[in-house]
Amino acid sequence: MKVPRLLIELRESVLAAIRALQANLLRSILTTIGIVVGVTAVIAIVSLIQGLDKTFTQSISSLGTRVLYISKFPWVIADDFWRYRNRKDITLEQGQALAAAVELPEAVSFASNASLTVKWRERSTAGVTVEGHSVSGRVVHNLDPLVGRFYTENEDRERRQVALLGHGVWDNLFEGRDPIGQRVRLGGQPFTVIGVLPERGSLLGMDQDTRMIVPLQTLMKLWGGRRSIQISLLAPDAESIDLVADEARGVMRRLRRVPPQSEDDFAVNRQEMLLDIFRNLTGGLTAVLVGVAALSLLVGGIGIMNIMLVSVTERTKEIGIRKSVGAKRRDILYQFLVESVVVSGVGGLIGIGLGLGIAFLVTLVSPLPAAAPLWAILLGLGFSSVVGLFFGLYPAAKAARLDPIEALRHE
Amino acid sequence: MGTQVVRALRGVDLKIFPNEYVAIMGPSGSGKSTLMNLIGCLDTPSDGQYLFEGLPVQKMTDDELAGIRNQRIGFVFQTFNLLPRADALHNVELPLIYSGAPASTRKNRAREALSAVGLGDRMDHRPNELSGGQRQRVAIARALVNSPSIILADEPTGNLDTKTGEEIMAIFEELFNTGNTIILVTHEEYIAEHANRIVRILDGKIHTDQGVSTRREANHEAVTRGMFQR
């Protein structure tokens, strides 16, 4: 089988390149520093962004893509909050009126919360978020208990003191023992445990398992008759959420007597908003990434070109020898191009190694699961090779054009 | 080189036939190096004609010249001119790489050539692990590996002591006896006398061109018996 000449020379050139690299190891490594930095940055940052993305979307999926949240304040207050100071609370009556007036949502629920200490026998947990939900909250917020039962409309109306434990609270106080029927003290008040919620993990760093669910009207009677409530609407599907939002806005404005020209005196929040903010954040990170990478690759490329020029000068005699035994111009060009691609390729590999190392370190010290996607690794390798090819072209062409007689006479 | 035109050769008319052993002699500055470069297709004449095996070299492209150097000419230089970072085997197979031979063929031919010059046991040595005489033998093996038409040697013993020099000249003698064409360029009389024709150059022109009256032959028995295993 006739092996193509270029392939034969490829192997020879790669071997020669590796030998040349070894001969001047320190210099070769310093040459590729720019490329190493660029590729390391790409790999590390992309891994972190992937990790953030995964964590984030996992977290906020618990908010549901079908749920609208109407509350007094928006989730993210971008400018000064003076605008919102004078807003009136949303009352339970308003909420119930809204629920009666809207037709599109599948379900409507109301909620409010407080932060209290929970005690059982001699154990206690402080800072527990006690959420008061209407019974419809079970459907809207996916609150099916792991064990036990949810409370009834009756219990809500009669302001019974019953509660469901968050998984973390159950763990802390009961350590796996059966809590059903036990009496706990919530902010001093006695409550009977009727159920336990499944484990939820954390939402944006906030632990969702250190909480308790009680009937809304019980909560309001005991701790907050004048609190603003949050109204949640469950749209039939993700696509109709805009329609549900429009309908609800209209009804709320009417109920709260907002003049036609004024803006809403309440906020309609949804999961999408958080996603938008997140995308902006990662978009910013990505822009930084692209900038850093481009700059380093440029620096790296110039470095490669310089070192290859030096290399060509140093090996002028060698080029003369090769030409005297029959190397054509393109053979020499080829050899030095391969060499610069090998040098920059090695830089790329080092960069990938470092980038993966950084990403791994991050997973060790933080809850972020940083994972380097294959496309980023291939991109890093590809880019570094292209830089080597492009910036190595001029030195290689210079080498190819050397006159063999002059070259043999060199040094 | 500046604005002055330097003519190294001013009209040279030379014919060399197969299986001749020619020495080109002249002092430094005589133009013998330029003549050697022309014969070896490293350079082309600015004026005139050079027919190599009937082909007009003066009209050839760089690539075509490189092809001739690869296939038909074997160079041996005064300073050996080996690749310093490659071992003997790799140095010898270099012309075969540029002629596109596959690896197994290359290695075999290179090994044969190295054995023929008596370096069968040193193939994996690098130039800096070899003596001057051994390095020149590697260079000769490299020159032979593509079975060239002519072997062109430029002061091949210039960097060697007298005894080693005689060993090298014995190799050339053997090559001549087995049918090769040897062209030797030197300024040393006693080296030139190994050839059977001496062309003397002076000031860019051929001064004399005649057969050698008393030919100095290399000491065959003592040297070659040890080197060439048949």
What's a quick, concise take on this entry?
By secondary structure, chain A is an alpha+beta fold.
Describe the structure.
The complex is a heterodimer of chains A (411) and B (230). Chain A has 2 domains: 2-58 and 275-409, no CATH class; 64-270, no CATH class. Helix content of chain A is 56%, strand content 16%. Chain A has 15 helices and 12 strands. Chain A has helices spanning 5-23, 25-31, 33-60, 82-85, 92-101, 137-140, 153-157, 167-174, 216-223, 241-255, 271-314, 316-324, 329-365, 374-400, 404-409; strands at residues 67-71, 107-120, 123-133, 147-148, 162-165, 183-186, 189-196, 202-203, 206-207, 211-215, 230-234, 267-270. Chain A has a 6-stranded mixed beta barrel with strand order 2-3-10-5-7-6. In chain A, a hairpin with a 2-residue loop joins strand 8 (202-203) and strand 9. In chain A, helix 3 (33-60) runs antiparallel to helix 14, helix 11 packs parallel to helix 14 (374-400) and helix 13 packs antiparallel against helix 14 (374-400). The mean pLDDT of chain A is 85. Chain B is an alpha/beta fold. A 6-stranded mixed β-sheet of chain B has the order 4-5-6-1-7-8, sandwiched between helices. In chain B, strands 2-3 form a two-stranded antiparallel ribbon. In chain B, a hairpin with a 2-residue loop joins strand 2 and strand 3 (55-56). In chain B, helix 3 crosses helix 4. Residues 221-230 of chain B have low confidence and may be disordered. The chains are: A alpha+beta (411), B alpha/beta (230).
